[in-house]
Amino acid sequence: MSVRTTCAYCGVGCGIVATLTGERSVEIAGDADHPANRGRLCSKGTHLGETVGLDGRLLHPMIGQRRAGWDKALDLVARRFRAAVAEHGPDSVAFYVSGQLLTEDYYVANKLMKGFIGSANIDTNSRLCMSSAVAGHLRAFGEDVVPASYDDVDGADLIVLVGSNTAWCHPVLYQRVRARCAAGARMVVIDPRRTETAEEADLHLRLRPGSDVALMNGLLAWCRDHDALDRDFLRDHVAVPDGFWQQLADGSDLWSVARACDLAPAELRRFYELFVATPRTVTLFSQGVNQSVTGTDQVNAILNVHLATGRIGKPGAQPFSVTGQPNAMGGREVGGLATTLAAHLDFSPPSRALVQRFWGSPTVAAKPGLKAVDLFRAVEEGRIKALWVMATNPAVSMPDAGRVRDALARCPFVVVSDVVEETDTVRLAHVRLPAAAWGEKDGTVTNSDRTVSRQRAIFPLPGEARPDWWIVAQVARRMGWRTPFAYDRPAEIWREHVRLSTYGNAGERLFSLAGHAAGGNAGYDALAPFRWGGTPFADGRFPTADGRARLVAVAQKPLAAPLRDWPLLLNTGRYRDQWHSMTRTGLAPRLARHREEPLVELHPDDAAAAGVADGGLARVTTPQGETLYRARVTDAQRRGELFVPIHWTAQIASGGRTGRLTRAQVDPFSGQPGFKSCPAAVDAV
Ligand code: SF4
C-alpha cells in the first residue's frame, strides 16, 4: 500500500510517497507530482522511515505516574480547566501549541480557547520562529500574506538570502536556488556566519549581527539615488508616510551603512548595484531576520525595498518569508497565534461578531492573548492556573528555558499531549495524553509558499494514542460544549475551516479556501495540493482600507552589545540533519553522522584568548546559565561571536543545553525572542 503524504519536518512541505513494507515499517520516496519538491527529498525526509518505531512512545493516558483510562483523564482535564475559569476567569488558563500540529488540530484548539473559554491565551512555538514576519506583513500589506511562491525562485535572476542557512534548514528549496543559479541567476547571502550556503554565494555579506535595517535602508536610499524606484507603482499602490524619505537620509549613505554593518564599502556597493540591475529579485528571509529584538523592523526594511522598487506580485520578483515548521502557516491561517482571532481576522468588534455568529459560541475573546514569553511569565507569576502544552517542549526550547522549567514545575495544573513518553516538559505534567504521530494522523498542513497538502495516515493508531483534534474536542464536550465540538473526522473540521475563511466579509480578506471544501470524506481523502490566494498583489491591490500597501519608517536601533563579564555574542541555530529537540531525528542513527555532538563554533582569536582548543571541551556561559560543548575553532565565525545548535536536551546529553543560555528579550511588535545575539563568555574545561 502506498500513501501520498507530506514530510513531518520543515516549512518546505515536501510531498512524500510512503509505501508500507511491514507492520511498523515504511519506505519513503519523494512525490514527483508534489509542487513543493517534485520528487526531491533531503536527508531528514529520506530517513523518516527510521523514525516510525514505537520505542519511547507515550501510548496511554497518564495521571501523575499512573496509567488512566481516557474517560478519567479527559474528565480531569475538563474539570480543572472549568474550575480555573469559574474561579479566576478565562484568562487564568492557557494553551501552548505547536507548528507540528495539523491545521485541523489547530482549528479545534483555537475554537475552544477563543470561542468558548473566551480567552485568547493560545500561543504557539511558531511565535519563536516567524511571528516577526507576520507582524511585518500586517504592517506593510494589511494582512499576513506571503506573496511569493517557489516558482518565483525558479524565475528569479537574483536570489538574496537574508539570515538563512537555506542549504541546511530548507534543503529542498535550496536545491531549487542552486538549480536557478546554475541557469545563470546570482546568489547573495547576507549572514554574519560563513555557512555552507554562504560558501556557494556569488557575494557573501558578513554583516554585524542585527544591522539588517541599516543595510536595507541603505539599499533603499541607493535605489532612490540611482533612479531605481518604481515611481508609478509607488504613486498608485503604496502609501508613504510623511517624512519617510527625509528620515531615510540619516545614515543611509554607502560609507555610513558600511560602517554600521562592518562591511567593506566596495562589497556593499556590489550588492546594491546588482539589486538595481536585476528587476527579477527574490529576497528570501528566515530566522536570522525574525529571531531578533528588532525582527519586525528588519522584515519591514526588506518589504520597503520590494514595495518601493515594484518588486512584488510579479514572477521572480518578491519578498519571501520562509517558515521553519511544517505547519507554521496553517497555524497562522486558523488563528493559532494569540494575536489573531481566526481565519486572518483580528479582534475588532465586527470580526468578533462574525466569528461568534459562525461558531455559535457564547463569547469570543475580546483582546489578544499572551504571547509565548509573556505566557510563561504569567505561569511563573501564578496567574495561569491551568496550562495545556500540545506537541512541543517549552522547557527546552523557550528562551531562558531553565526559568520556564521552574515556572512549569510550580504551575497548579499542567497537561501535556505529545507522542513522546519522556521530555523535559512531559516530565512536569500532571496529566499526559498520548497523541497520534506523523504517519498515524490525517489532516492538512500549509507550507511556506501557501501550498496546502494532506498528511495521511499510514499506520493504525498504536496503543491508546488519539489525534490531537479528537483529544481537544473531547475535553470541549466535557466542558459543556457538545454540539460545537461534535466532530467525528478531520474532514468535518476542514470543511468548517473552509467555510469560516469565506464567511461574512471574506471579500476583504485575501485568505480564502473557497472551492476547496473537498466534498465528502472521499473528497477530503483525495484532496490534492493547492495554493490559496493565487498571485497576491499582482493587480497592485492590498488588503488595507484604501487598497494600498504601506512603507513603514524603520531606523537602525543600537546593536546588542556584549557585557563586561560576557564579552562575546551568542548565536543559535539548526544543524542540517537534526530537528527541534531531536525527539524524531534522534531515532535515525544515520542522521547523527553529520554532527554527532553539539559544537560551539568560535573564531581562532577568541579561542586563543579563552584558551580553548579545537576539539576540546568548552563551557559557554551567559547571564541565564551555562552548558558544555565540543569546540570547533573556525574563521567561519566572526570575531567576538559564538554559534551553538538548539537540538540537545537532558534526554540526550548533559551538555549542549542551549535553551539554558538564551535570554527572553523580545521584539516589541511581534513578541518574538531575539535568539541570535545574547551576551556570552567561553572558557576551556
Ligand atoms: Fe522534509 Fe524539509 Fe527536507 Fe523537504 S526539505 S524533505 S520538508 S525536511
TrEMBL record:
Family the UniProt entry places it in: Belongs to the prokaryotic molybdopterin-containing oxidoreductase family. NasA/NapA/NarB subfamily.
UniProt keyword annotation of Mitochondrion present: no
Keywords on record: 4Fe-4S, Iron, Iron-sulfur, Metal-binding, Molybdenum, Nitrate assimilation, Oxidoreductase
Domain 4Fe-4S Mo/W bis-MGD-type: start-end pairs: 1-56
Top-rank taxon, per record: Bacteria
Cofactor: Mo-bis(molybdopterin guanine dinucleotide); [4Fe-4S] cluster
Residue window of the full protein shown: 1 to 685 of 861
Protein name as annotated: Molybdopterin-dependent oxidoreductase
